[in-house]
Amino acid sequence: MNTIAEHPLFWQGESPLTCVDRIEETHDVATFVLAAPSRRLFHFHPGQFLSVGATIDGKPLWRAYSISSSPTRPETVSITVKRVAGGRVSNWLLDSIGPGSELPALTPAGDFALHPGDIPSTVALFSAGCGITPMMSMTRFLLETRAAADIHFFHSARSEDDIIFRDELLSLAASHINLKLHLFLSRPQGEMPHLSWHRGRLDASRLQRLLPERKNTRAYLCGQETYMDAVGNWLREAGMAEAAIRRENFQAPCAEAPAEGERFGLRVPGFDKNTEIAEGELLLDVLEREGLPIIGACRTGVCGSCKCKVVSGDVQTSSTAPLTPEEIASGYVLACCGTARSDLVLQIG
Question: Are residues 267 and 231 in the same domain?
């Protein structure tokens, strides 16, 4: 029997999405509102991500972005993108995409999610910078469905002007008694006297004071790795169980290739490709460099879009999270998290 997401009414990734609106959130952040052809609907859980593709300098590139919209409004899906130094796809989106533009995309995915049938009495959301995007999806969903949950929304930003979704968050907090907004600004300008915020960075003592109920609370964390590590430690020290702490792992777990080291042969017979891979170099980087049709979306071992089969050879991998036991037994690995230990023969596609 088909799942809800496989229903004919829902978009299955079979066609590009069209940008129907672009919202400038801050000076370096924009939200892209995307629609599917033939009024197809979107099925996802708050917190999941959408992978979109771009062709830059003749090369197809894929990146994953957390969805910022709520599944209560399935006619469109939104991603919110920040300009970053060296962010090839993010910066291309901000420079090139507007209403009418088309984007190839994959269906929403990801284990970091708030499931409608499993909502705790208290939800604590912790985000820094653009890590706010999945938290906004969760907040919108909880409020629009009138879920019986208290929401503690902790967000850290540089200044008032850097708070993504600022005006909407303030409006939601003013109109919903169950939404407690805790804003932390490291470099406040002090130009918005009506805005309630905390000066400096979040720390253990302020977290415990602002989040008095932790026994029946589930926490969701998204931001830089150091931020999530610190918040997770503070929550555990305050008595929160490990199972109640969920974090978005969008930081690549694999190291850069060393400048010197052994080199191995890499062969992809299905595409008549023979090349080399350095010790410690990611499979994904080599396959993309050779122009092979591999989709590296999340690039962090989460989405599984870059899986490939090791026909022969030895690969060291740091993540198998999205692979099934059957795929692992058959030799599949994630190219974004795999490095060569010997000559390799790979099957992709």
Answer: no
**Is the residue at 328 inside a domain?**
yes
pLDDT per position as a tens digit, 236-247? 999 999 999 999
CATH number, domain at 74? 2.40.30.10
Q: In which domain, by residue range, is 335 found?
A: 263-347
Look at 151-160, 185-194, 207-216 and tell me which has the smallest mean pLDDT. 185-194
Q: Are residues 239 and 133 in the same domain?
A: yes
Q: How far apart are CA 265 and CA 275, in angstroms?
A: 6
Q: Where are the alpha helices (DSSP H) in the chain?
A: 88-96, 132-144, 166-175, 204-210, 225-237, 283-289, 325-329
Helix then strand count (H, E) for the chain reads 7, 19
In a domain, 314, yes or no: yes
CA atoms of 170 and 197, how far apart (whole Å):
11
302: confidence class by pLDDT, cuts 50, 70, 90: confident
Pairing verdict, β 102-103 and 315-317:
unpaired
Contacts 24+ apart (CB under 8 A), 7-11: 7/43, 9/40, 9/41, 10/40, 10/41, 10/42, 10/43, 10/74, 11/36, 11/40, 11/41, 11/42, 11/107
Does 117 fall in a domain?
A: no
Q: Is residue 109 part of a domain?
A: no
Q: How far apart are CA 30 and CA 343, in angstroms?
A: 44
The Cα 53–Cα 198 span in angstroms is 38
| Half-sphere CA count of 252, side-chain side, radius 13 A | 17
> What pLDDT band is residue 93 in, cutting at 50, 70 and 90?
very high
CA 172 to CA 139: how far, in whole Å?
9
Residues 180 and 281 in one domain: no
> In this structure, are 151 and 195 located in the same domain?
yes
The string of pLDDT tens digits covering residues 146-162 is 999 999 999 999 999 99
